[in-house]
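Sample log: Neuronal acetylcholine receptor subunit alpha-3.
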Amino acid sequence: MDYRLKWDPDEYDGLDLIVVDPDQVWLPKLMIFNAVASDHANIVDKDEGQILLESTGQVNLGLQILQSTQCALRIEYFPYDQQVCPFFFGFQNLPDSIARLEVTGTAIYSYNTTTQWDILELTGNVSSGFIPDMTSKNKFDNVSVATFCLFLKRHPNYYIGTLIIPSTCLCLLAFMTFLAPPDCGERVSVGVSMVLGLTVFQLLMSDLLPISNESSILSDYLSTNFIFVVLTVPLSLGNMNLAYGDRTRDLPRWKWYRRLFLEYLPAVLFTPSLSQRLSNIRRTNKVTPQQQQLQLEDLEQTKVNGKTDEEKTKVKGPDVTEKIDDYDHQEVSYVT
């Protein structure tokens, strides 16, 4: 309201509304305090828009502006996060005794949507703040400040399709190498290829992740997948060493250990147990069923009592003992 611009419509043939240029009337400097660029902080531009001047002294200026502001984001739940972005409007060095802001209502229109965010709510209120006064009488003065808060919700579908699903597929593909037999020389090379592929993938997709001192659930998930893929290489090496490595370091001789890895876990994982593998070995060497039962009982007793290789040779013969010992280690290798 500008009391200096009032007139009596009856003196001008009932004219109560005119259109004037912004540079013909006094306009306040309305600032956005959290604007990124200081030269664009003043949103009232005299070179844009037109003034609707009413006979009551009401000055109306409607502008469409594109403004860049600062908004602190919390990315702990990225990309399933919700943000609150405030906009602070106020006059430049005009106390509320001269100019005062009012918020009459807020609205969100259907066209104010983006491909990355959903606008949930828009709120507005007016408060008073203190700024240094330029006069010598008062050190500080009240300034009217209007605060609008925009509540946003991020669309996660883009990040699910470009980051989460490809990273999960690479991690699962790396663990699929354990389906190959231990004597397959491609297990380690495939694991290393998965590590390199996931590294290149994360480097290409690093620009999609927000930069912050706080860690998000998406970055933690990608880091966890990378650690799992890296672990497939030493696990494959250990598995191959267990199957075809040094036989002087024999398996532990505890009964629970042998039953866990040679009987129970094979049944759960649908792999042949030790007794089934021994039956195949003895069938190959044409051993009678009575001899198979005796050799199996003697083998279990040998593992428990810790008999030497010479004693095992006396019971089963050198050829069968060597195959049984190899299958004993390979069985644990297949299970693990």
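Observation: The CA atoms of residues 107 and 122 lie 7 Å apart.
Observation: The chain is about 40% helix and 15% strand.
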